[in-house]
Amino acid sequence: MSIIVQKFGGSSVADAAKVMNVASRVVDTYKAGNSVVVVVSAQGDTTDDLIDKAKEINPNASKREMDMLLSSGEQISIALLAMAIEKLGCPVISLTGWQAGFKTNSNYSNARIDKIDTERLLAEIDQKKIVIVAGFQGVNRYDDITTLGRGGSDTSAVAIASAIHADKCEIYTDVDGVYTADPRIVKGAKKLNEITYDEMLELASLGANVLHNRSVEMAKKYNTALEVKSSFEKIDGTVVQEVIKMEKMLIRGVARDNDVASISIVGLPDTPGIAFKVFSLLSKKSINVDVILQSIGRENKKDISFTVQKAHLEEAIAILEGAKETLEFETIKHREDLSKVSIVGAGMVNNPGVAAKMFEALYNAGINIHMISTSEIKVSVLINVEKAEKAVQIVHEAFFGA
Question: Which of 143, 147, 118, 149 is nearest to 5 (CA)?
Answer without folding.
Answer: 118
